[in-house]
Specification:
With 634 residues, the protein is of the alpha/beta class. It contains 20 helices and 30 strands. It has four domains: 100 residues, DNA primase DNAg catalytic core, N-terminal domain, CATH 3.90.980; 187 residues, 3-Layer(aba) Sandwich (Dna Topoisomerase Vi A Subunit, Chain: A, domain 2); 237 residues, Rossmann fold (3-Layer(aba) Sandwich); 73 residues, Orthogonal Bundle (Arc Repressor Mutant, subunit A). It is elongated and about 140 Å long.
């Protein structure tokens, strides 16, 4: 070990940095911190850790002495240069010497006897500054004997065995992919029956880290925390993971920042009260992003003109949102859903009414076999290349849990399916995901509010993380003759909680046909969160050969009129003389009604009779009576 030429001291800018982290100069010097000049850092061997092209840069900075806990001798050094270096394309804020193994950092208040006494609590944190802040501010006021251990980063508490991997070209490569072990310094501690608090920065619990942890439990900062906790538990420790909240502005916050901002007593309360045995990655992924709560004047809000969300389909479906398309069986929901996907893929207005943002679209259909969907798509004219389909041919459940019958929950094994779907949306850069139908997306009943909330939290998570809109196809509830019928969201099957989870509802209602026998379909828009109310519309099909050719036009209510039986009879006689038999066929009236009306018309000299023929008088004025009336459509 090279002997340093100058006595230990800290330069003013280093002292200022320590004060910001709630660390005093005297405590830092007692724990082995010192300012290093460039020549001192080179004498200690830090130059060999740098790439050749950066070795001429200055190495001055603040150094941390890593001492052996048993002997008290300095075993290694670690340097935080004043100017970070770029090593292998990454910004290196700390530098270790080449050849030094990973060690634990002990403040001077962590004593050798603490390692063998399991009654002493241990706080394990990332970084030397955080360890010093805890040791100086929190340990003296702790209600239990406590000591602090600092790690060289989140991965600094454990390592993996090296294994030999044979590559396809026949060569061998040594990789760190074997079993996991604690570093040597931590292996010397007695962990059985000891309480260990693991305190990492708040950015461990981000959605990015949670998604990486779901892919591999050894990956990322959350994976490193999990692995360390499992290794300590395997040795009998009571491990508690302390959850640090983000900073006031949502930025990363370490335990030293927390102590400097709120004080040591609040930090101690956090350590004792805000801990979990293991972080729940699913809750982190599905949680809404925290927003600062600050009242704002209504007039100020209007003047600020907040940014509207980007819309996949104007007025009904934003990016990161969910829209519900509902209707009774056989009303054409799937065709409308495909028309929505095709409109987004082509960048054309949906139903020639609602503008869309152009982008790839995915249509996931669970009720059809692939060949059935192919036959349907064949009759839809020219399909856009960005319209993609997923056809599993069976249910596509996405819920993470389901009841096990004992008022508890069991895992469904669907997490991998959700992650695979999310990866496909990201890889294709899809802007619209259409799921048809809703009933096949969950094994939980849609009448259960908790089940609906859980499923839609997953759909919302997919929409937000993938940056797309989700269109869900649903069916109306089936009503009996005595049940009330509604229009809008109230007619959808399942829990009314559906209305609280979506950004809009589009309801389709088949109507009585026109007089020429053509069908009418009414479309209602409800629960619009991103647009003012829309009037009822009528769905028109534009082509008998192209199933994607639809448009919306304003809905026109048909006027109900009253046509009397006498008017029907007069209209028939105006076509020419007729016998009673012909009038039966023309009017559809009963014979008794025809004779009664003819008698009245003869008395009023509106109709004349010759033999068996009845005819209109040419000079007679037609009077409309209020005889037995029948209803019809104009």
């Amino acid at each position: 070990m090279n002997r340093l030429q100058f006595p230990a001291e800290l330069r003013p800018h280093h002292i200022e940095e320590l004060k910001k982290r709630a660390i005093s100069e005297a405590f830092a010097l007692a724990s082995g911190l010192r300012s290093l000049a460039d020549n001192e850092a080179r004498e200690l061997g830090f130059e060999s850790s740098l790439p050749v092209d950066q070795r001429k840069k200055g190495l001055q900075g603040i150094a941390f002495a890593y001492r052996d806990l048993q002997s008290g001798e300095i075993a290694s050094w670690r340097l935080k240069p004043d100017t970070p270096f770029n090593i292998n394309g990454a910004r290196a804020k700390y530098i270790s010497r080449a050849g030094d193994k990973i060690r634990a950092f002990y403040p001077h208040t962590t004593l050798p006897e603490h390692a063998s006494d399991a009654k002493v609590d241990v706080i394990i944190t990332e970084g030397e500054f955080k360890a010093l802040a805890l040791a100086e501010c929190v340990v003296p006021i702790a209600t239990r004997p406590t000591c602090v251990i600092g790690l060289q980063g989140v991965n600094g508490g454990w390592h993996r065995d090296k294994v030999t991997v044979f590559l396809p070209d026949g060569t061998k490569e040594i990789r760190k992919e074997g079993h996991t072990h604690l570093i040597d310094d931590l292996e010397l501690w007695e962990w059985k029956g000891r309480t260990a608090h693991i305190i990492f920065d708040s950015d461990v619990a981000t959605k990015t880290q949670a998604l990486e942890f779901k892919r591999s439990k050894r990956s990322g900062a959350m994976g490193a925390e999990y692995t360390l906790a499992q290794l300590l538990r395997s040795r009998g420790a009571d491990v508690r993971i302390v959850v640090i909240p983000p900073g006031p502005d949502g930025t990363k916050q370490g335990i030293d920042d927390f102590i400097a901002r709120y004080g040591p007593h609040e930090a101690l309360k956090l350590i004792y009260n805000s801990w979990v045995p293991e972080r729940n990655a699913d809750e982190i992924i599905c949680a809404a992003d925290p927003l600062p709560i600050r009242p704002i004047a209504a007039c100020e809000l209007v003047r600020s003109a907040p940014t509207r969300p980007a819309m996949v389909i104007d007025k009904i479906l934003p990016v990161g949102g969910i829209a519900l398309l509902a209707g009774p069986s056989g009303c054409g929901k799937s065709f409308i859903a495909l028309a929505a996907c095709h409109a987004v893929a082509a960048g054309k207005p949906f139903l020639e009414f609602l503008p869309t943002t152009a982008g790839p679209a995915i249509y996931l259909q669970t009720e059809m076999e692939p060949w059935t969907l192919a036959e349907r798509l064949r009759g839809m004219g020219q399909l856009h290349q960005d319209l993609m389909t997923i056809c599993p041919g069976s249910s596509f459940a996405l819920n993470f849990y389901e009841p096990d019958g004992y008022q508890k929950r069991r895992e469904t094994g669907n997490r991998e399916r959700v992650m695979a779907l999310l990866e496909q949306i990201r890889s294709t850069q899809a802007l619209l995901l259409c799921l048809d139908p809703l009933k096949d997306l969950s094994t939980l009943p849609l009448t259960d509010p908790d089940g609906v909330k859980h499923l839609f939290s997953i759909l919302r998570m997919i929409a937000r993380l993938a940056g797309c809109g989700v269109l869900v196809i649903h069916h109306h509830r089936k009503t009996g003759g005595r049940e009330g019928r509604y229009e809008g969201m109230d007619d959808a099957a399942g829990s009314f909680y559906l209305a609280a989870e979506v950004d809009s509802v589009v309801s389709i209602y088949p109507q009585p046909p026109r007089s020429d026998g053509t069908l009418r379909t009414k479309v209602l828009f409800s629960k619009l969160r991103h647009a003012p109310p829309l009037p009822p519309m009528e769905l028109e099909r534009l082509s008998s050969t192209d199933s994607l050719a639809w448009r919306l036009v304003p809905w026109q209510e048909r006027i109900r009129t009253k046509v009397s039986n006498e008017d029907r009879l007069i209209a028939a006689l105006q076509q020419g003389p007729m016998r009673v038999k012909d009038l039966l066929d023309k009017t559809g009236l009963r014979k008794s009604s025809i004779y009664r009306i003819l008698g009245k018309l003869l008395d009023n000299e509106i109709v004349t009779k010759q033999d068996s023929l009845y005819m209109m008088k040419s000079s007679s004025k037609i009077a409309v009576t209020d005889a037995n009336e029948d209803e019809g459509w104009e």
